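Sample 3 of the quickstart, ligand zinc ion:
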Amino acid sequence: MTPNHSKHGSSSISHNPYADVNWTETTHCLSQFHLHEPRNQIDPHSASHDPPAENFTTTTERSTPSELIDKYQHAGYGSLAITEHEYYVDGTKHKGEPFFEELEETSWPWSRWDRDRSPNEMIPIQGAELRGTIDGIDGLHDIVNLGTDLGHGRERSLLKVATDIVMRGGVSFLPHPGKYVDPDSIELYVTMFQQVDSLIGIEVFNAHDRYPSSRAIWDVLLTELGSKRPVWAVANDDYHARPRPAGSERFDQSRTVLLLETRSPSNVIEALQQGHSYVQYNDTGVAPKIESVSVDDELVRIEAPSASTVTWISAGEAVDTGTEITVSDVPNQYVRAEATGRDGAVSCTQPLYIEQTASTF
Ligand SMILES: [Zn+2]
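Result:
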């Protein structure tokens, strides 16, 4: 335990994203918000990554998005966004080519592949992986658009692309931030988060955890921005259904779990905005289910019965372990929990924000 630093005041939770989640009524909707049209043939009924890893060729016969949708549904998922790269059209790469109209297309609507699913089976979300410029980064930075028809960033600034997504009524997040920045140089993100409300957060697990520093980047953003500007975590497979060497397969590895009371596309977008979610990374195990996160005056509690350890993190440091933490023991303005299972599997809550109140003597 860290010493109680608040002898001269008290601490309380000022913003708990789970405050209005009814954990007994809610659906834990396994979701993917960053994945690509298949580059190879896949088996829609298989629960693992299929394209053969031995040779890294790409088959001429590729599966359609319908098989991708079926494959995730078979694996227990309830919501997907097929977020094809802005420079792909029907499986053909046009990276570096001048813009042409077809690049604007997104993998939508699902009726194109006869997958007009009822939201009880699978909630479809329109999306695309776009790009834009941002000072401090060479080349273009990716941004995932959800809930709009914007299919190309047109080499505008990332801020302009994110603003365009807001104007169209969607939300966005920054995929694999660890690919572009290190935790000491996230200042360039801070302005974007301050200026664009519907930029909901960052991807903290990508595929087989390709960029582990993304969690450190998240913690720095949480520390810098505080409760005025929450930054929510998402996690995704970034699945391409293409051959991968053993150990780097991407299917059903990283996911976002949405806590939904009603299953509909608009409720998915709302849950993303509110942080009604947690993220999971399987590694070679099975990430623990988070049954609840609750707060009473002094304590934050997590229920994750299959977890072997729960670690509480504030300002990027582990500050306590166990299923509960006393709010006044948290040294910084937020706390989040990581519930660890076996074989590297982990589930992370969103941050809960803390307010220090000075007492009057
Ligand atoms: Zn991607």
